[in-house]
Structure formats: C-alpha cells, structure tokens
Design goal:
Elements (H helix, E strand, L loop, with lengths): L2 E7 L5 H12 L4 E3 L8 E8 L6 H5 L3 E9 L1 E3 L8 E4 L6 H9 L3 E5 L8 E2 L2 E2 H6 L9 E10 L7 E8 L5 H12 L3 E11 L2 E2 L4 E2 L23 E4 L2 H8 L4 E2 H4 L9 E6 L2 E9 L4 E7 L4
Parallel strand pairs: 1-14, 3-12, 15-17
Antiparallel strand pairs: 1-3, 2-3, 4-11, 4-12, 5-6, 7-10, 8-9, 10-11, 12-13, 16-19, 17-18, 18-19
Length: about 290
C-alpha cells in the first residue's frame, strides 16, 4: 500500500501508537506521521504510507490550526491538565480582558518551548529530563500566530480559543503565556488539531473505524499533500530519466514564472513521479524526491 491517510487521532494514545496501528493494518513498516500530537490531544494526523513517507517533512513545515481550552487559576508541571498541579490562584478576569489579551498574540514572536517537549538537549529529549525532575535552559524560537479568537463563553474559569499558527508553535506554552498576561496561572485543559496544511478535521477518519479490510478505502494519493506546488508534465523519455535520477533541462520543460529552488510536482500522464527543485544556475530541474518510479 502507498499514499496518504488522514487520521483523527483519539485522546489517550501517542501519535506513535496511532502510527503503529496503521503499520499493522497496512502490513508495512514504512509509515510516518507529519507532526506529533500529545496523548491528551485529538485531531488531524496525516500519515504517509510506503514510498510516500519521503514527503513527511513537507507537511511538518506547514501551518496548523487548533481549538484549545484554557483553564485559569491552576498551573501544572507539564503545562497541561495531565500534569501535577503546582500552583493555584484566585481568578479575577473578565471576558473582555481575555479578548483584549488574545489580540496581543497575533503576529511573529519568540516562544520558549516547554520542558515536556520532544526537543533534544545534548541528545536527550526534554521530556525525559523533565520526568527526572531536571530543568534545563531552552532557547526561545520564533513562531507566528496568524489568528487567535475566543470561541466560547468564559465559564468556570475556562474558555476556548481557535488558533492558526506556524510550525513549531507549542499550544501549551501559548496557554501559559496568555495566563501570564492576564495575571493568573493557566493550563491547557483540552486540545484538538483541526487543520494541518489544507487538510481539515472533516477530511479525517476516526482511528477505531479502520480495519485491515477497509483501510485501503481511506488511502488517498500522496500528491494531495503537495497541490500547492506548481505542476510540470513531462514526456516519456524525460520520465525515464527523472526516475533514474537524472536532471531535466529547464528549456525543454517550458515552465513560466519559476524561481530558484522552487519545488515542482513532476507528472507523467496520470502518474505523479515526485518533486523537482528548480536550479536556475545550471538551468535544470534537480530531483528533490522520488515517490513513484516508472
């Protein structure tokens, strides 16, 4: 089997476990997801199967969207509701204050990753150190919040936000930062990823629906993840050359309005072959990755 399956990850399992089930159902070892979700989180988890796994990084780089519930007045060691409570505070916040604070987070900013994250420090995952009670210095990273809106009432010290953000954004850290600006501790109490790149939660299949008998019905072409790249159709001889690792002459491809290092979807008739990278200096299309070989 080969292609892309859009999974709605349930709460209570790791992304790794979700991928392991897909491996079992598809009877293949070559399976890769495109962005880890914490065990408590649900939502969009695109999974590449077979040779399509070479495309995983292209969705890792994409924007994401989430619905996150924030609980004010408590903080935990993990910055989410699954952790141990380390602080409690009285909450004196209004809905109007929340809306005003949310507006200040739109745009580019530096964010400090949480200790409970998969980032490595000297070869060790931060969450491994955190579980040992060790806290280390982390470097802040630039992220971008494209939009952030209040999408629920403020009740029982809880409210929900709809966040569209760049790759690498930690929603747990965002919740903590929102609480800090409101002058009260805060923690992430639920999280659903509603969109990765162009794939929405409505496009996804629940993991428990999948069986060995029906999984193939939910696999779509891996090319669906790359439709934002321009398409170039090539001849039979060019397809053979490309499949064998050869570069293609740009003059013969006759592609208009391209830029250096731009990625293109390379197709021969109805077959998606892979991605090519524009090399203007050498006037050729280099191979970025091969997915299907003639």
């Amino acid at each position: 089997m080969q292609g892309l399956i859009l999974v709605n990850k349930p709460s209570g399992i790791t992304s790794f476990k979700a991928v392991s089930k897909i491996k079992y159902l598809c009877a293949t070892k070559r399976v890769g997801h495109t962005g880890t979700l914490d065990p408590m989180a649900t939502g969009v988890l695109p999974v590449f199967i077979g040779r399509a796994t070479v495309l995983s990084n292209f969705l890792l780089e994409s924007d994401k969207r989430y619905i996150a519930e924030i609980t004010l007045g408590i903080s935990t060691d993990t910055a989410d509701i699954t952790g141990n409570v380390i602080n409690r505070q009285e909450v004196n916040v209004t809905k109007e204050q929340i809306e005003a604070v949310l507006k200040t987070f739109v745009g580019k900013q530096m964010q400090l990753p949480p200790m409970y994250s998969a980032i490595k420090k000297d070869g060790v995952r931060l969450y491994t150190l955190a579980r040992q009670g060790v806290e280390v210095e982390r470097e802040a990273r630039e992220i971008e919040i494209h939009s952030i809106d209040l999408v629920s009432d403020f009740k029982d010290n809880k409210f929900s936000i709809d966040v569209s953000c760049s790759k690498g954004t930690y929603i747990r850290s965002l919740c903590t930062d929102i609480g800090e600006k409101l002058g009260v501790c805060a923690t992430l109490s639920s999280l659903q990823r509603t969109k990765t790149a162009q794939f929405c939660i409505e496009n996804c299949v629940d993991l428990d629906v999948l069986t060995k008998e029906n999984v193939s019905q939910y696999i779509i072409s891996e090319e669906a993840a790359l439709m934002h790249f321009k398409e170039v159709n090539i001849t039979s001889k060019q397809a053979t050359r490309f499949s064998n690792g050869g570069q293609l002459d740009l003059d013969r491809l006759k592609i208009e309005n391209i830029s250096d290092h731009e990625l293109l979807r390379v197709r021969y008739n109805d077959t998606f072959l892979g991605l090519g990278s524009v090399n203007l200096e050498k006037n050729q299309l280099d191979i970025k990755c091969l997915v299907n070989i003639l």
